[in-house]
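Its record is set out here:
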Amino acid sequence: MSQPSGSSRQRRPDGAALAIAAGLAVVSAVIFWNTANLGGGASYARIGPTAFPYAIATALALLAVGTAAKAWRGAFPERERDEPAPILWIVGGLAVQLLILKTAGFSIATGLLFAATARGFGRGPLWITVPVGIALSLAIWLVFARLLQLSLPAGPLERLFL
C-alpha cells in the first residue's frame, strides 16, 4: 500500500525557526536583566519605569516559547529557496552606503542604496535608478535638513543647498 504524501510523513524540527526562537529568548533575557538592574524609579507609582520593559520582555519570551514549540513540531510551512543575487545587491548597497555616507553625503550614498535595492528587485537599469535614487534622497535630505532642522550627513551635493 502506498501512503499519501505530505500528511503521514514526519518533518524534522525547523533549525532556522529554532535559531529565531533562541534569538528571541536571548533578547528577552537581556531586557529582563537590564530592567532588573535599572534601579531608581518612583516607588509611589503603581506603574513605574520598569513596567513596560518587563511587559516587552515577557511578550518576547512568550514568542520565543511559541516559536520553539512550532519549530520543534515542524509546523512552519516550507520556505522558498533563497536567491543569492538579489540579497547580495541589497547587502552590497547597504555596505556601500555605510562606507561612503560621511564622504559622499546622504543623497549620493542613499541614492546608490536605492539603485542597488531596485536592481536586487529586478527593477530598471542602474543608469536610470542611480539618478532617480539620488534625486529622491536629495528631496528627503532637504525635508529633514531644511524643514525639520535635523542633521543628516552632508556631502558635495548637499553643500550646494546650504
Q: What stands out?
A: The chain has two domains: 13-79, 81-161. The chain is about 65% helix and 0% strand.
